[in-house]
Amino acid sequence: MTAVGTTAGPGGAGGGFLLAPERVKEASLAGLIVLSLVVFNLVIDDYVSGRFFNRVAISVAITALLAAGEAVVIIARQVDLSVGSIVGVSAYVTGDVLTSNPDLSPVLAVALAVAIGAGLGLVNGTLVAFAGVPAIIVTLGTLAIYRAALTNVAGGTTLTTNALPDWVVDLPRSTIVSAGDFDLRTMFVIALVAGVVLHLAMGSLRWGRRIYAIGSNPDAATQAGLPRRRLVLGAFVLCGALAGLAGFMFLGQFGTVNVTAGANLELAAIGAAVVGGVSIQGGSGTVLGAFLGAVLIEILDLSLVRVPQISEFWRDAILGLLILGAVILDVVVNGRLRGRRRRDGVAAPTGGAAT
């Protein structure tokens, strides 16, 4: 039995669960979300309403799924820039199949989208893990390749809602529970369940602890005998699978799908993960944090639109500053934590792993 790191998952070493850096980040994000709602409620008439929260729940589902997948990849000290293109390919191919086979089972339709995403993620992971090509180069290339393939398959045609089964078109309005103006939308519940399950898996399962280990210290993890290549491959496949599921949601939410479907979603997903406290240096952060980051960005984006004094340029600038500030804060805080641990003689957290 060889151990890597000093923790059994996200949370750091020696500080206790409640004082762990990840818990602090998550609590801070929750506080920022509440503060944002309070501030916008003061400057926007009829701001807090069921209609607004329903819009947030629908629009954040796709980004939250992608952010969860990116969180795993970034924790493993990689990055996936191709998730937007994977969303587009999955949405279009699944929609095309449903157009030709309207009686196809919803379960099979979702499975098809997830399988397409996982397959494209497998390509990314193989090139990164086994060919040794840097992830940023691989996924920047596949971003363009997958988009070009979609353009070739689509041939300039556009899928429209009238060609899709009713259950797909009705998906954005589908609810689990309704209470007055507030609806618990099915798409949001799916994204939430996926995020919670993945968050628990990263913190509790050996696989998740090993992902933290290879991201925190790849050399030490390799020396300890961890299957680094397989873990990196699995992270990309998982990220692709979640992007495929997001592609199915994209099909349901927008109905009309063309070759530009999913464009720039990779930026939103990475931004949400970073704002959510996932360290760009790898080995730190949580899926829950990435989910909260997606919610915060979505609330700001939808709220700033309703402030007439703020132009579209400044909306983008504010969101950009938020992401930049999160990166700077991450570098500064992590640097100080590592310095303090070295002074205290405590090993830096790696997420822990055992073989």
What does it look like?
The structure is a single chain. The chain is mainly alpha-helical. It is built from 13 helices and four strands. A hairpin with a 2-residue loop joins β2 and β3 (182-185). It starts with a strand and ends with a strand.
Chain-wise SSE layout:
Blueprint: E1 3-4, H1 21-43, H2 50-75, H3 83-100, H4 106-129, H5 135-154, H6 166-169, E2 175-179, E3 182-185, H7 186-204, H8 206-216, H9 218-223, H10 228-254, H11 265-275, H12 287-304, H13 312-344, E4 353-354
Antiparallel strand pairs: 1-4, 2-3
Spans of at least 5 consecutive residues whose pLDDT stays below 50 are 1-8, 12-19, 346-355
Number of strands: 4
What structural class do helix, strand and pairing data support?
Answer: mainly alpha
Distance between the termini: 6 Å
Compact summary:
The chain is mainly α.
Considering the chains and any ligands shown, give keywords for the structure.
13 helices, 68% helix, 4 strands, mainly alpha, disordered N terminus, two-stranded antiparallel sheet
